[in-house]
Amino acid sequence: MAKVVAVTGNEAVAEALRQVNPDVSSAYPITPATDIMQRFTSFVSNGKVKTEMILVESEHSAMSGCIGASAAGGRVMTATSSQGLALMWEELFIASGTRLPIVMALVNRALSAPLNIHGDHSDGMGARDCGWIQLWSENAQEAYDNTIQAFRIAEHLDIRLPAMVCLDGFIISHSIERIEYMEDDKVQNFVGEFKNLNPLLDLDHPVSYGPLILPDYYMEYRRAHAEVMSKVPNIVLDVASEFEKISGRKYGLFEAYRLEDAEIGIVILNSAAGTTKDVIDLFREKGIKAGLLKPRLYRPFPYEEIGNALKHLKAVCVLDRADAFGGSYGPLFIDIAASLYPHKNGPVLFNKIYGLGGRDYLPEHAELVLNELAEVAKTGKVKTIKEYIAVRE
Amino acid sequence: MKLKGWKKVTPGAVCTVAGSALEFKTGSWRAFRPRWIEENCIQCLFCWMYCPDMAVNVKDGKMVGFNYDYCKGCGICALECPGKKGKKAIVMEEEGK
């Protein structure tokens, strides 16, 4: 029987990692992800896992350690946030370009400067094009479930790419929620034994990692990477359907909430989706056909599927918890706009930037957006395509 | 060597065949070519020792010339060559001249 517990998001992710029992972890503490690795290192010290734990001097080294251990032939994981992810930047591309199935929990936090430790998506959005798979999680349960599924997706022999599991800093990482833990053996059977591909430690079949690839081959490797990325959505769905069988919880590429017959819709990532769904229910009671789309697989972005799920709406507002400076619009907006590009008669789009640096996203903010959506759906006209909400003038 | 298409490259650019660097001939990088002047050579083998590649051919313990498939023309051999009575046994000459 599954165990119902009251735990924080970080605690839930650490528990998933204990159950997976990876071969190696290399990590460096950073708020708000520290708690995951602090709990996990306790599991190591107390003999609850057989993981070889490498404590390093920086996140650059943490990811380097993961890369080495993964190339050597181990199941590998780590966790980080914000500046830590930023310091891993060059190694992120090396992990993905070398096709190493490392799993990393990313507890989303704002980037400096100004220095801020609270939840926003600027760290994960900054790393969205680094060749990793990204799964985003609304709450502790999704973070726990995504962590377990991430191992299966990343390690799939047709994929072999690193995967990030994103959850909102503090809002999810440090808040206690009711969640369901699965039994250890169920998780272990689900992730299965780690399968190697060209491990460095296979001395009978020596290999070299990290060769210089010049203009005569570099594009072929990038093209191959793009091809592998295009296979990810189907694997994500396969893994989700297997996961549903053992957990009873259903996952897709995204969550569509009351979207099928909706006329107006909000697209939003992670924890703020929960608040938004509550407000959508209130609007539905008033007879306003509102719905929500919450991307789960953000990289690779399922453009076709999301475009098809939104094309029938009259107006859509994309809420971004990060800005893409100089890119005119928020990063999620840019992707949603691209997904609707093939649909000439698609919805009118606009963009709100909210919740930066942990600024609260309140029901009244969702109300504000839904009221504007209802107006835009009626008139077909948008006053300002992009604006910040809940900001002082 | 026929270049492979993107469907045939190994995942993550991992080299699965040992010694495959032999297939990668770097001689075309060369702008200057070392020329061996045998009468000035004292067979000290400094050139063989200092060569960062393996582009100095040695047979029966003696320097016998260069492997131009791999020599990148760095000139270290010519710099280190003590020669005989002040006359170098290796000189660098511009390619194509």
Structural features:
A: alpha/beta, Rossmann fold, 13 helices, 15 strands, B: 97 residues, alpha+beta, Alpha-Beta Plaits, 2 helices
Please, could you describe this protein's structure?
- The complex is a heterodimer of chains A (393) and B (97).
- In chain A, 41% of the residues lie in helices and 19% in strands.
- Chain A is built from 13 helices and 15 strands.
- Chain A has a 7-stranded mixed sheet, with helices on both faces.
- The longest helix of chain A has 30 residues.
- Chain B is an alpha+beta fold and 97 residues long.
- Chain B has a single domain, classed as Alpha-Beta Plaits (2-Layer Sandwich), CATH 3.30.70.20.
- Chain B has a two-stranded antiparallel ribbon with strand order 1-4. In chain B, strands 2-3 form a two-stranded antiparallel sheet.
- The mean pLDDT of chain B is 95.
- At the A-B interface, α9 of A face loops of B.
CATH class of chain B: Alpha Beta
Mean pLDDT of chain A: 97
For the largest beta-sheet of chain A, the strand count, sense and barrel status come to:
7 strands, mixed
What proportion strand of chain B?
15-25%
Can you name the CATH architecture of the largest domain in chain A? 3-Layer(aba) Sandwich
Oligomer: heterodimer
Total separate domains of chain B: 1
Structural class of chain B: alpha+beta
The CATH architecture classification of chain B is: 2-Layer Sandwich
What structural class do the secondary elements of chain A suggest?
alpha/beta
Percent of residues in helices of chain B comes to 10-25%
| Mean pLDDT across every amino acid position of chain B | 95
